[in-house]
Amino acid sequence: MTTAAAHHTPVPKVSTLVAVFLTLIVFTVITTLISYIDLGEWNIVVALLIAVTKACFVAWIFMGVRYTTSLTKLFVVAGLVWLSILITLTYSDYTSRNWIYQPKPWSHTNAPYFDNKAK
Amino acid sequence: MADTIVNATEDVYPPAEEVHLKHHFATPAQQMDADTLGMWTFLITEVLFFGGMFASYAVYRNLYFPAFASTSKFMNVPLGATNTAVLICSSLTMAMAVRSAQLSQRKALIRFLLLTMFFGAIFLGIKGYEYHEKWVEHLVPGFGFHYEEVQFERNAQILFFLYFAMTGMHAIHMIVGFGLLTYLVVKARKNTFTEHYFAPVEMIGLYWHFVDIVWIFLFPMLYLIGGTR
To answer: How far apart are CA A68 and CA A55, in angstroms?
Structure first.
């Protein structure tokens, strides 16, 4: 593998780039076709797995994460950890909201005191 | 990994004006590592920016799944898939452009940058056509919104709001990328980029690939929710 002089950055092979390109195209076709098959809840799982795989190919080869320093790799992973915190905590909040009993807000209609007075 | 940090004393330097080495960096390799780290830091803020929209998508999809699934038949899946392929093509030409810059191949660099812009333009053209379709079918959220399945009208509108917010934000990023690529073409014509200095090409390449990754997630999420339904 040749390197670009001043930075000693490895130059990717054309064959590698084209192979990644073809892989991405094949995955796009697969994810489109598979969406027409009803897998129930698994449709989104498969679609996301394929999307994550494609994203990994783009990041690792096209974006050259494989050639970056350990510190940059750590930053990339940290970004994904923060993204997972963002989605997981938001999602868990919305899912678990009805798990705890919450008294209804005060109003004339559900306040027994006023009902008694009316009689 | 260790070999990416280069001992300054072992480096044979090309002419300083060709390297564009800023005075606060010891070596071109150090400058390149700092550039890359800084660009990734910016991209992480972008990940979280789009992440907020992805999170709201996840919440509403969970709450109103039948309504969300019913919108898939209004999405133009062939055009969406074509656009995915077009964007992947532009990613390949961008990667090839970076490679050409690394090998000081000026003509190839300009050619690949222009090809990347060409694919980007096709993407935006198709996207514009799809927006027009949504407009004609009264699927743009707002007072003119009309949905044939009345029971889903309110909740399906949320999906179309997310659709326009996310693809719109993505398209704005593409347009910004267009400007950046134009800047690269102008610089490349002046013969700025050589094997000793190609950081701008590589950094704008990172940005372009990131925008591609966003679309890789948008396509299945917005177009392929309920394929058979």
So the answer is: 17
